[in-house]
Each structure stands twice: as C-alpha cells, then as structure tokens.
C-alpha cells in the first residue's frame, strides 16, 4: 500500500517558478512571479522569515510553563490554595487546545499573516492582564486568553515553514521549529525560578511581554504573507478578477466536528494520540514536580531547583540535532518497504521510545538523597531524547496516514494532548506527597511502559489497521484519482 500523500495545490510555472494552479472557475492567466512566490525567495529572506516564526513559537511555548515557577508565590499573593493557583497552567492549555479550532479555518480565508498579527498582539496584551490581575479569577481568565491567542501562532508556524521551504530543504527549519516548541517550555521554569526568587513574580509576565513585543515588531516589519492561495487571491483582487470565497460557517463546522469524529472512530488516531497525550501530560507534571522534589529533599531554592530541567533540555537538544540522521533512517526504510509507506516513520521509535520510561525510572530512584544530585538531572537526558522523536515521528505517521484529513487528525491529537497537559499538574503535588518521589515517578514510568510498544505494533500491523480505516481509504482513493488525472494530462 503506497504512502497516503497530502494532496496540495499543484504548481504552474511562470518564469520557471511554481505558483498555485487555478481552481475551477478561476481565471487561467493568474499566476505568481518569482518575487511573489515564497519558495523562490532568496535564502536570506527565507531564513529571516523562518527565524521570526520560530521565535514566535518559542515565545508562546516559553509562556506556557514560566507560570509553574510562580505557582506558590501566586497562591500566597492571592490567598488561594495551591491547586487553584495551579489552574493557571490548566487554563492556558485549555485555551491552547481550543484556539486552533477557530483560527485554523480563518487562516485559510485571511492568510497566515493576518492571523499572526491579530492573535500574537492579543497574546502579548494578555501578559499585561496576567501581571496586573487583581485576583486569582482574573489571572486564570487572562491565562486562558494567553493560550487561546498564542496557539494559532504555534500551529500556523509549521505551515509557514512548509510555505517557504521546498520539501528537500525543510529538515533544518523544521528541526528549529521543533526545538522552539519543546525547549521553550523546558527552559522557562529555570528562568521563572530565578525571577520569583530575586524580583517580583509579576516579572515572569513582563519578561514574556518584552520578548513578545520585540518579536511582534519584527513580524510587522519583516514577515510577508507566505500562504500561496492567499497571495494568489490578493493578486486576483488587484487585477479585478473574480475570486472564489470560502464559506467560514462550513469551515468552522468541519473544524469543530471532524476531529472528534475521527478521534473516537479511528483506532490508529485514538491510540497514538493517547500515547502522545500521556507523554505530554508527564512533561507538564514534571514542571511542577521537579522543583518540589529538589526543594523538599535537598532544600534548594526556587531558582536553583529550576536548573533541574537542564537534563531534559539537553536531551531535547540532542534529539533535535539528530533530525538529519533520523531523516536518513526514514529514507532507508522507504527503500526497504518498497515505497513511502507511513510505517517508514516508526523504526527508530521502536528503540528511542524506551528512553522515556528509562529516564523516569532513573529519576525515580536516584533523585532523592543520598544519591548525588547530578544523577536525577542527568536522568532527564534520555527522557528528552525520547520525547522529541516520538512526537515528531507520530505526527509524521498521522500526516502520512490521513493525507487530506491530516489537519483534522492533528487537531484531535493536539486537543487531547493539551487536555492531559492541563490536568496532570493538578495532582502532581498530592501524588508526590503521598507516594514519595520513587513510587510517584515509577507510576508514571509504568504508564509509559504500557504504551511504549505502540511504535513496534504499528510498524508491524500498521498496513492491516490502515486497510480498515475509513479516512485512510478515502485518502488513498483520492490520491489514486489524482494520479490517474495527472497521467491523462
């Protein structure tokens, strides 16, 4: 069974440069020039745009977890319980889960740049609300808005990179995007820990505002529209040509319903999304558990305890740097399997996925005294080393598997993942207080072990499961029709 490719707009050359082919009913003489086509831009312009969207992603990711360093001081400031204070993480991730459902269809109509300019501005302004919130209720509301308006930046950034770079040159830009997505949340608690120790906790949000403000200025000045259908429609408007208008109501209905239908009806999607959601939930649980473990067992201050995340960050950095080698492994298995089948995305995960429970068990039994403190921090290296390839590999597998329906599949995956990340921090402190570091972390390790065989299962039985998938079969049928039409042309 061949690879379920995503059917994207085909391209027509003008001056040797690809541009979106006109849809039925569109004027046949409208196409993009070299200056208008993002994939034909100079390398310096491409890297400038890539740097801006990667930095936007890193800023939102950084904001998602810097709050965890201030949970205790926020609880003291607002005279509320620690669980209520922890809801600031939960509300952010709930907003992060729901934002793309609204803004994804809007980006298809308004283009990526207009969505960036609106949502990233509102994300930046929400930091003022967090810093000046008069009570905990206001804080939770502004944290929700921060996640809601920050999410479209992250979800659209990957699309912007694919707009700019051809497939043969995407590995490094996408590796940088992945690093921003994962390293931002890991570094933030370290920075936030020192902020809350030495200056007022509100500076956690003022710092995000300063960074976001600088990035927003760069966005306004240097980032043009990259979404080619939007560029083409704008050109048609300038030439007074008729433009096909998409119906927002229909797009919203599909975006709000299809991800849930697929999540509950597609075993491939539901099982792999559950696996990713569990790992994501453990990651955000660690943001609240790590500082507690080191503060309680070793008496570290909040700033020093934040350094405990450096092991995870190093593991993620190694995994990101290894992306080109992982691409080579993928190419080898494409040849071995006789074509670009989705299962070619999984062989390296059969080994690397075991790094996650390894890191958890290592941390469980070496983080507390009398073991040297460095052992628990180094235990984060295999966890980070396994997490990044698992996320990227499963995302690529779902994309290959569902083709035209990949956006809905990934939306369902992101919503479930964010829900787990929102809930897990709420019970971290109680779990570690009652079970202790060793058994609380071991429990997480056993949960991870229960799902670690998934890459092996899908590598060996994926074709059989795909043959029973309604949406995969529809994708394959559409791909065959497109191939037959191309052959006739």
Task: Walk me through this protein's architecture.
- Helices cover 76% and strands 2% of the residues.
- By secondary structure, the chain is mostly helical.
- A two-stranded antiparallel sheet has the order 1-2.
- A hairpin with a 2-residue loop joins strand 1 (11-14) and strand 2 (17-20).
- It is globular.
- The protein starts with 10 loop residues before the first strand and ends with a helix.
- Mean pLDDT is 86; it is low at 1-28.
Beta-strand residue percentage:
under 5%
What kind of sheet is the major sheet?
A: 2 strands, antiparallel
What's the total helix number? 21
User: Low-confidence parts, pLDDT < 50 over ≥5 residues?
Assistant: 1-28
Per the principal axes of the C-alpha atoms, what is the gross shape?
A: globular
Average pLDDT, rounded to a whole number, is 86
Query: Secondary-structure element order, as H and E?
Result: EEHHHHHHHHHHHHHHHHHHHHH
How much helix is in the residues? over 70%
- DSSP, total strands: 2
Rg, Å, rounded: 23 Å
